[in-house]
Amino acid sequence: MDDQVEVHFQTDLGEDWQVSESYWINTSSGKTELQDIILQHLNKQANLMLLLNGDIITNSLEEHMRTQGLSTEQKIEIWFSIEIPPPSSLGEIQHDDWISCVQLTSQGCFVSDYGGFLALYNENQEEIIKNQIFSHPIKSIDFNENSNLLIASSKTGDIKIYNFQENSLEESAFSHIKHIEKVTSNPSGSMWAVGTYSGEINLAKINEETANIRDGTKKQRLDKFNIEINQLNLPHTDCITGLKWPSLDLLLTSSTDHSIMAVDLETQSVISSILAPRSIQAFNVFENNIAAGFENGLTQLYDYRNSQKIALLEGKSWVRAISMKDLYIAVGHENGNLRFFDRRSVKSPLHTIEAHQGKVLTTDWLNSIISSGGSDSIVKYHTFS
Amino acid sequence: MADDSSDEEIKVRIGDIPLSYYEDLPIIGYGIDGKAVAKVVEGDALEKHIAKSDDPEWWRTLTDHLNAKKVKITDEMLEVIRKIRQRKSFGSDFDPYRDLEPEAKPQISGFGTDVMPPKRRFVPSKWERIKIGRLARAIEKGWLKPKLEKKEEVFDIWADEDQEEKPAPPKWNLPGNAESYNPPDEYLLNEEEAKEWEEKEPMNRESEYMPKKYPNLRRVPAYENIMKERFERCLDLFLAPRVTRPKINLDPDSLIPDLPDPETFRPFPEILQMKFVGHEHSITHMDFLANGEYIASGDSSGEVKIWESQTGKCLESLKFKKRIYWLAWNPIKPLLAICCGKNVYLKSFECSDKVSIDYAEAPENQLATWEWKDDEVKIKMRKGVRKVIWHGKGDYFATLCKRESTSKKVAAHSLSRFQTQKIFSKQSKGDVKSIAFHTKKPLFFVATEKNIMVYNLKQGVLVKKFKGLENPTHIAIHPSGDHILAACEDCKLLWYDYDLSSTPYKTFLYHKRELTYTHTHKRYPLVATCSLDSTIHIFHAQVYQDYMQNPSIIPLKIIKTDGEPIQCLFHPKQPWIAAVIGKEISLFI
């Protein structure tokens, strides 16, 4: 006769999904049996992900208990959630050059490439806009939905700000800083942070007073605005690889000099700093969590409020891009793989897809759609629904 | 008188064996008839005492052990014994003094006579006692010393010859199971094997002896090869000189230096993470921009590419007519010096910010002519340029033209004055293999086939000469400026200390084939060498400001590459290394 163990099921899915009773379950039961018990109790249909102390249950309960050193005499708690299904392809868009940046917005998907093209595609992957805005590679773009302004920066250091209206982009401001790597806008879309290869971070905003004046007798007619740039004095010494502006007075930066900084923009001072073991090659922020990807394939999760490490995602190939959504993290690698992790169980990826023939250079996540761009000049869309 | 010994028949025939051998046995030996002869039992001390007191004739009784009987001594025998003791003849009719005069004079003892007086009459001499007392006192006080006897010197005829003990001959191997008279069945050869064994030449046989089985040891015949084997053994011992080698009782592990764990020296490059793919012909040289943002590479067909080092994206490509031999970024501004044929091109690229070199009237020069074309500057030399290196301040650069005359091989160029001049009027003979600027001082290093010459650029004189090289392929100056590394064709990396000695401070013979390049990291204490044996070796090389402290050089990692790396360069800021392998640049992290 098999051993039995008392199991209590827990979830954060809501009141409808709560299982109040404890069950005596055979230790030989696997994921299917456990899932059937929960679903039978709840009278629902779903694919569940079951976790035992952060370890996804894939084999029999007995094996997981043995590896974790748990005894049948004690009550164990199994945490369950809706399992993220394997991503399915929604389509792809071919570009002429390496994709440098993708951003999923409610207006569509903005894509920039190394050929200097900026494009907007709707949800059916139909091209709405495609313009060559620079003769040099576009390194970074950021569209702000509040102000409908899009900032794009080229490798040579040109910055252009576009006003997006009725499916068209109108250039409204221009400036130049040397060797721009990353740009980001503040939540209201009124200011931008620009990170350079040399480690400088500049705050940019449109200066309407010093706008260029079109030739003519009437001085009121304005054509393009200038961009006013103020340099932030931060102790970064090397290439800025990540910039995020989660709230109006907080800017998060990462650099290949191994440091991540949280900057209070009111006082222009560093409020917390994290020293990573390697140079940070990919960076993203979700709520209070920071994900930093390194060239050795590892991805470290931090809490920027107390600079504490949360979890380490294993990997072997250079981390090129990270996107985060709720509890899930997508990590794009040099070898073209896109790996999906659950933050509650980071020991192994939930799913791994060979997204690109080459390196994954950028990825973004909106609702249930994830897009990625790579060195194969293709933008790919995947969905989890 | 009859000989008694011949009459006596010895009953016990034990030969010359001592009687003590029979002490523990009840017999005394064996008689002539082969029967054991029992010992004559003598009683213990108590019995002897009783017999002594009971028998008045007891003292006459003797035990003849050889004949195992007791013998009683008669009066005649006693008379004989007595006469022998008195040294008289014991025969009754024998007169020993029959030839002497019957009336001999009585002998007188004392001085002047042949007869010494008896000892009881001896009176010690008073004068002798006094004399001896004197001598004893003199010996006691140390006045009288014994005369040293002169020993006769013995001439050692063999003194000059080596009298080393010859080492013992090596022991024969002990016989195994196969040599047994009753070997296990698995050792025995079947017919085929036996036939094969016999057909083979003796020297080709796996075993010299064919195992055979005998029912018992008695049936084993004499070994037929004993003479042959003994002879061969003696011949071996005679022909092969033996030398005693002192055996050092050392733990081999104790000879290996106790190196710290490489884990403690992270980060250093370990694995291949990225390849820069795009060249159609084999790459000849590459260089990192000073801030590490771009890599420039040139190939044998004359194509130059500019890569974004972070992503591996080729941003610009440029085609020249001839093979690119060398590329070097200016350390201050993004200006690339390219060696192509007889020309050195100074060119900037759009992706890396344009650097304009305004046209100026360059002074006439025999060595080179400066030409402006579009946004590039062309410096035309008289012979093919093989190398170009920049000075740390970015104004001067030096070129190496291998086919030029000896003193004009190395030329220095000034970017601000558009001038070219030979560095020295006299340069050492021999082919110049590599050149380098000192990182801090106005010194210039020229590596020839055997030496590294150090010239002072201000004074224009040779200040130092480093020896011990064998065809160096590349020399690198450590960022501290006090150490010089030379990669040589004889598989060695030589480490010179500028202030210590003209000979190498350390020699590393780790590669199996000739070295192609060596490089030191500007930020991390790392040194790398690459070789045609398809490996890149990474060392931790910590150099101290303190002259008393030696640099610590620890091998960290051997990176195996797909092909033969001809160049390896550290990233200027990150602990990464890029290597030129065929048509690709591999980046190891």
UniProtKB/TrEMBL annotation, chain A:
Source species, domain of life: Eukaryota
Record-linked InterPro entries: WD40/YVTN_repeat-like_dom_sf, WD40_repeat_dom_sf, WD40_rpt
A Pfam family: WD40
Protein's name according to its UniProt entry: Uncharacterized protein
Organism: Blepharisma stoltei
UniProtKB/TrEMBL annotation, chain B:
BOP1 N-terminal domain segment(s): 22-269
Gene Ontology terms describing biological process: maturation of LSU-rRNA from tricistronic rRNA transcript (SSU-rRNA, 5.8S rRNA, LSU-rRNA)
Signal peptide positions on this chain: none
Broad class of where this protein is predominantly found: nucleus
Cellular compartment(s): Nucleus, Nucleolus
KW rRNA processing (keyword) present: yes
One MF annotation (Gene Ontology) recorded for this entry: ribonucleoprotein complex binding
Keywords, in A-Z order: Nucleus, Repeat, Ribosome biogenesis, rRNA processing, WD repeat
Record Pfam families: BOP1NT, WD40
WD repeat residue numbers: 276-317
GO cellular component: PeBoW complex; preribosome, large subunit precursor
Name this polypeptide is given: BOP1 N-terminal domain-containing protein
Higher taxonomy: Eukaryota, Sar, Alveolata, Ciliophora, Postciliodesmatophora
